[in-house]
Amino acid sequence: MAELAPKSPRESEVVMTQMILPSDANPVNAAFGGKVMEWIDICAAVAAQRHCRQVVVTASMDDLHFHSAIKVGWTVTLHSRVIATFRTSMEVGVTVTAENFLTGEKHLTTSALLTFVALSANGEKVPVPPLLLETDEEREAFQEAQQRRAERIARNKKSPSWLRVIKPGAAG
Ligand SMILES: CC(C)(COP(=O)(O)OP(=O)(O)OC[C@H]1O[C@@H](n2cnc3c(N)ncnc32)[C@H](O)[C@@H]1OP(=O)(O)O)[C@@H](O)C(=O)NCCC(=O)NCCS
What angle do CA 47, 100, 137 make, to 5 degrees? Predict the structure, then answer.
């Protein structure tokens, strides 16, 4: 099969803006985490799809951190970028920056790493184009992603004990 042409991470970057509406809020008038996670998943999936020009599915979401609350009425801007590509999977990083529209103050509120797998029209896993790494920062981020992937594969080889303490049907 012909080699896929490498693509720069810049080519798949996504910027997405949302306003926090009352329907997006938790009981303390700040953004509900699940809503922010939905936007993160979409923003990251669009970057992954742009990179590989295939349908993608979310395989995992890692390192999701809510650094600070986002108030109702504020806006958030999500940025996503492909950090690393492997055979059929890609790791995508997402940051969420909140803006207080009254003062213009902006700060990082959430960050996450997601892995997507590319699928053909028949639902088969398909190879993705390699990344054309252009800067030292991009090369460093790629190496860290390789390390995370190696750690995940090693971790997944054994079944974690927490899965065994949750017994479906035991409660409620
Ligand atoms: C993700 C999915 C396609 C992986 O398929 P699989 O047959 O179990 O995977 P394989 O072991 O053949 O691995 C395929 C690739 O996925 C990666 N992968 C698999 N599970 C992963 C996980 N939990 N996290 C990150 N990467 C993962 C593998 O490392 C591999 O990458 P590579 O080809 O770049 O080396 C499959 O588990 C699936 O369809 N899951 C449901 C996805 C979905 O519906 N998401 C929506 C959210 S509900």
Answer: 40
pLDDT in tens, the chain (172 residues): 678 999 999 999 999 999 999 999 999 999 999 999 999 999 999 999 999 999 999 999 999 999 999 999 999 999 999 999 999 999 999 999 999 999 999 999 999 999 999 999 999 999 999 999 999 999 999 999 999 999 999 988 888 888 889 988 766 6
Q: Are 31 and 18 in contact (CB under 8 A)?
A: no
The structure tokens 């090369």 sit at 139
Strand positions, DSSP E, the chain: 14-19, 55-66, 75-85, 89-99, 106-119
pTM score, whole prediction: 0.95
Relative to the CA of 128, which ligand 1 atom is closest? 34
Pocket test for ligand 1, best of 51, 89, 149, 153 (most atoms within 8 A of CB): 89
Question: Closest ligand 1 atom to the C-alpha of 127?
Answer: 33
Other Cβ atoms less than 10 A from the Cβ of 151: the count is 10
Range 9-160 classified under CATH 3.40.50.10330: no
Q: Where do the domains of the chain lie?
A: 9-160
